[in-house]
């Protein structure tokens, strides 16, 4: 099967993060078995999802890991013009379907080369590392990376195939999702001296979160490699209250910190928490039971720094005709690989501008470029 045919099969598995990816994993395992490729599952705690590791080539140190996530974001409420889980070719040079660019296109390009790779005298291996639950906090990859390093010879480099239009990316921001819950004291809205409005306090804290970004810019904590040059703090959801004439007892909001590689998540959170401590003390002077609690909704996804990557970046540039490297604002599993000492870059077919959109697509030319990259990688890793 070529890359487009494999992409058709992969898109047909509705691997939305809230659901299992095991049918897709089983399909890939069967495909690898047909070509005599060793592979290993790394399952989630409940067994409902799995990562997949596969090695093409010798069982030795070195070589390249090609990493991609198998899960996709939901299509609920999006105005798709075609079935999102059926690959559609409208004759306009694009292939439509959920996950086409983010990032089953990359996986399809890699799988399409497996039959050729298995026939090459590879000096070092090519690894496939397929993860689950990337879209909800990069949850699956850490245990896959742990298993790779514990049970197998250490690879030399990692290429994470997020959509970059086949340009190497050497840095991205870290990301943490949080929920803050403010508890006040309910009272009739005509008796504002008796209650403490959780909504009013939450609003002050939300404003503080935005103010932190202004402080970072004023302090010159910017990196011009990113299109958003500073660490960003953003509140995406808020809810609270029961009626217009009741001072709200509870209000909660969900927010995120996306920090530059040069910033520390803990320090940025600390600025917001300092304000929360002050507001909580003010609340408790009127209502001792009041409080503010912030909890992390995911383990911090580490940033990817432009560091210790000269060899893998040089490899990508060699295979891609010296394309310049860049940085992206979104977070990926690349930072998790780098945290374990593995030199890592991001490079894959498609545009991030199409990711998560209705009528998501990948240009056929990009799929072909990804296939050429995979073929060149196999040739590069052959014995001299």
From TrEMBL:
Keywords: Amino-acid biosynthesis, Arginine biosynthesis, Cobalt, Cytoplasm, Hydrolase, Metal-binding, Zinc. PROSITE patterns: ARGE_DAPE_CPG2_2. It is an enzyme of class 3 (hydrolase). Residues 170-276 form the Peptidase M20 dimerisation domain. It holds the Pfam family Peptidase_M20. Its cofactor is Zn(2+). GO terms for molecular function: acetylornithine deacetylase activity. Its EC number is 3.5.1.16. CDD domains: M20_ArgE. Transmembrane segments: none annotated. PANTHER family: ACETYLORNITHINE DEACETYLASE, N-ACETYL-L-CITRULLINE DEACETYLASE. Belongs to the peptidase M20A family. ArgE subfamily. This is Acetylornithine deacetylase. The gene is argE.
